[in-house]
Write a structure and sequence with these properties.
There is one protein chain. This protein is an alpha+beta fold. 25% of the residues lie in helices and 31% in strands. The chain contains four helices and eight strands. It has helices at residues 28-34, 51-63, 114-128, 143-151; strands at residues 13-14, 18-22, 71-79, 84-93, 98-105, 133-138, 155-161, 164-170. An eight-stranded mixed β-sheet has the order 1-2-3-4-5-6-8-7, sandwiched between helices. Helix 1 crosses helix 2 and helix 3 packs across helix 4 (143-151).
Length: 175
């Protein structure tokens, strides 16, 4: 993978119901209450951040990875019908021909297929950018995230990291 491929500068993405907006620190004010439920951290650890702390995190994320072989691409997820930010999604690409996906949807917005729709859009974007392997690490007891990974076309592997199973999709590359 090139050092910092401009292809992974997050661009706006649109799905049937969602706008995936390149994440900006200004999104923190709207997202902090959406992501304030401690239950969102049951499987991932940590705790909710207030708006100033979330703004700092988003500023770090948008500044990019300190490793030039790794690209961080993050989006705020807006549900058009509600006109509201409802979560975030991210891609960590590299080093090498692999991109890892992650997603979080606010508790009030769960169960509506939002994470699935956003994850599918990210898989499509990653493959469009020529990265053949897409992965996600999912806690086996997190049924909703297992369903998202499966619906996004990822399949469970025998590999584990920090108590989470690696889900993967690999597309053949041109020969």
């Amino acid at each position: 993978m090139p050092d910092r491929s401009p292809a992974f500068t997050p661009r706006p993405l649109r799905t049937a119901r969602l706008d995936l907006l390149p994440l900006h620190p200004d999104h923190a004010a709207e997202l902090a209450p959406v992501l304030a439920d401690p239950a969102l951290h049951t499987y991932t650890g940590g705790e909710p951040l207030d708006a100033p702390a979330l703004r700092e995190r988003y500023a770090r994320w948008t500044a990019g990875s300190p490793d030039p072989r790794v690209v961080w691409a993050n989006w705020a997820v807006r549900l058009r019908e509600a006109g509201a930010l409802v979560g975030t999604v991210q891609v960590t690409a590299g080093p090498g021909p692999v991109a890892e996906l992650a997603w979080v949807t606010g508790t009030a917005w769960q169960g509506r297929g939002i994470a699935t729709e956003a994850a599918k859009a990210l898989v499509t974007e990653v493959l469009r950018q020529g990265v053949p392997t897409v992965v996600a690490h999912v806690h086996p007891e997190h049924a909703a995230s297992v369903a998202v990974a499966s619906a996004a076309g990822l399949r469970p592997t025998p590999h584990w990291q920090d108590g989470e199973r690696r889900w993967e999709r690999t597309e053949p590359t041109g020969a």
